Amino acid sequence: xxxxxxxxxxxxxxxxxVARPVATPLRLDAVPATVRLPDAAAxxxxxxxxxxxxxxxxxxxxxxxxxxGLVTDLxxxxxxxxxxxARVVTIGQHRRLESPASRRQTLFEGDExxxxxxxxxxxxxxxxxxxxxxxxxxxxxxxxxxxxxxDQHAAIKDATVIEPLGLLTSGGxxxxxxxxxxxxxxxxxxxxxxxxxxxxxxxxxxxxxxxxSTTLACLAHGLTAAGLTVHAGKAxxxxxxxxxxxxxxxxxxxxxxxxxxxxxxxxxxxxxDVRDVFATMADVLASPARPGGPVPDVVLIEIADGVYQGExxxxxxxxxxxxxxxxxxxxxxxxxxxxxxxxxxxxLGCDPSLVSGVLTASPLATAEARRxxxxxxxxxxxxxxxxxxxxxxxxxxxxxxxx
Length: 403
Prior knowledge:
The protein has helices at 39-47, 55-63, 177-180, 212-225, 242-249, 271-285, 310-316, 319-324, 335-347, 363-372, 386-392, and strands at 34-36, 49-50, 68-71, 83-90, 96-98, 104-106, 112-117, 120-121, 126-129, 137-141, 145-152, 160-170, 173-174, 200-205, 230-234, 254-257, 298-302, 327-331, 354-356, 376-377. By secondary structure, it is α/β, with parallel strands linked by helices. Helix 10 links the parallel strand 19 (354-356) and strand 20 (376-377). The longest helix has 15 residues, at 271-285.
């Protein structure tokens, strides 16, 4: 089978129009292209609302706001992860900005925000691409993504419009999320191989909102209740704190997502980078959470979107993925999606061990899926039960004792 190619350069779509920016009381582009923030401007950046995706940069700003400057050359092309101070022009789909602590901050027109550049692939919301300059663009995700929307779901509002005021700088260089991320991204071939020594389970779905995160959280809760040490992460998608915090609440001892590796989003990145994010994350999660701590009994990793999303499809057939992942759990929205998804996975040489997800909220849909499939269909919240989670993880023969 073929995988939908979601490469941005193949879309041939024009960016959606953005509203004319509101007047800026302090025109930062009237000053030289690179400036060290004076006290007033430093206070302005310090006061701006910070996004979840920029939380590590926000912490650095809190520690030393005067260490940051701005580049205001509007012709400059931003890179994925570059951090920008922007003004909210028109409120649209996203009326709130997720804070570094994952609180939903209400946005007002004229607010100044610190967000990061990137692209977004969200079938239920926006297709948005990295802008080519620092002109007006969109807030494409509540987690803090500055992007240019080129297409969107018919059921949602137009995107919130923002006006970039300048890229943040520090030490003479443009600030990128990777500069402050707690984990450096490493090439897959240079990793220690920890992930091959710990059982790794990948959770994949038919699409956005098919129940992947809830399935992973329930599985984490059940395995934790069985006495196991669980580490969990989300390897691809668009930066937001809700999924990672869901995994924490479920009992996972160590939780990371791709934003911990300096990425606001994984869409539009070269595939080699996506592969390295997954491999580095698996290696980190397969290691003790702290010096002297226990090696986890199992690692759970969510892969965003669906099988037909370009990066996901390529990852599933990549040798790195296959060498690391021991078991695949599949989340589906309905019985037909489950049946088609299992067939699509098998065509890629990836055989799921069970099906769960949104479809299991319906007893009728669950019964349909069970009649159509030769794979176990497990209600999502049953995975919270230790014996069900234990069997779902395929750990019967590991020798672990159930607490």
